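Hello again, I could really use a second opinion on something today. I've been staring at a protein lately and its backbone has me curious. Can you walk me through what the tokens say about the fold? Take your time with it, there's no hurry, and the full record follows here:
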Amino acid sequence: MLTSSHILIGAAATSRSHFRPWQLMLAWTGGFMPDFPIFLMVAYSWLVNGPGYNLWMKPDGLYWQEPWQTFGSIANSFPLWALVVVIALVLFRRPGRLGVAGLGLLIFSAGYFLHISADFITHADDAYPQFWPFTDWRFFSPISYWQPEYYGRIVGLVEAALGISLMIYLMMKFRQWIIRVASVLMVLPYGVSIWLHF
């Protein structure tokens, strides 16, 4: 899925109207962070190789090279992030500041887990090893959020509809202007995605 979709899903699922600003920030960033290595890779390539460098095409694209595959494996590992959830639960049950820190980590990791779960079912031949470091096995989904040969056009339209619905939900739920503006900004990539696919 597009990063903006993950952010909207995480924000809608984990944000609460009574949250403090730092908790809302964690709700939004949890959905973003599994894609952080991708943004880092793109920035690195622009700085080192310049625009137009092969990032995605197999087998020479930067995405398929080290250390980017390892970074992506860490970021998308169910076992590693399940451990983070366990740590968050242990902290959450503690009194005082540890409990507050545990709540923050739970908010963040819930959005994070939603992201990698959605990627599990929408990445075809570009999937990461989702159970790294225990195995390099990858689940190659029969559907893709972007590849036409794996129903990417249909999935893209469904994703755009979902994202717009979540934007409306967040704008109705929250009065803070920054959340409303952020929600609108998150749906802009759908226009680019639809234009590229159609």
Q: What stands out?
A: The longest helix spans residues 96-122. Residues 3-146 form one domain. The mean pLDDT is 93. The chain has one domain: 3-146.
